[in-house]
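Following up on my earlier thread - several people asked me to post the actual chain instead of describing it. Fair enough. Here it is, all 246 residues.
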Amino acid sequence: MNNKNERFNPYGVELTVVVISLHPPVAPAAIKIRALRALSLKEHHSVSNRILKFFMTGVILCGGASSRMGSDKGLLLRNGKHWVMHTAALMKDCGLSYVVSVAGHNILDYQQVLPGATLICDDPSLQVGGPLKGILSVNLAMPAEDLLVLAVDMQEMKPYFLQQIIDASKENDAQAILFKHDDQVEPLCAWYRADGLHHVLQLVLQGLLQRFSMHHVLSYLKTKIIPVGDDPAFLNFNTPEDLSQL
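Reply from S.P.:
Thanks for posting it. Predicted structure:
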């Protein structure tokens, strides 16, 4: 059945994105994906101007192609548990409710691994690529939520760093808070304020966002950077060879 959370649809507007949790598992041919109450792209901007209170939700990004790994990274096993389960536990350790951003073709697999979790599919109406598509799809489904985003391939991430971001978000007027290590910012372990994501969405709708990399997106947001040293928490595991470091 659909997992309905009242914070997903506080405005009484019909939603167009897919937010589902299936119980019990069903055969792929029998799946009838239904949208919860969602914001259409045209409605999203006007609604965003009426948001008075923001919430924070964790987002586990699992929707990538995993072309270098050769299989879905969120479904890989580590110590007998799927990667997405480790990341979900990390979110819970920080006191966050979370959603899982997935590609539509593997939604049944994730439903079986995390029964009862809220799964948000990439919205096909968004003409963007990469992680930005997953993040904006979640923003469309949950327009009042600030998002703490974590890529599922950051398997060494520690609660301490996520808590740093959470604490910084309470004392800051930035639209994005992220870490910088090895002279590189990490946009997939980061907090994004809802109004900043609304702004990015409008750039997409107006055809003004020519590149979809998260590093480019950050140039349109007011950011706070937290410098960190060389820490394995920020390792990305993208290829089978990288797994030897786990």
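The helical segments are 41-48, 83-93, 107-113, 131-141, 159-170, 194-205, 214-218. That should answer part of your original question.
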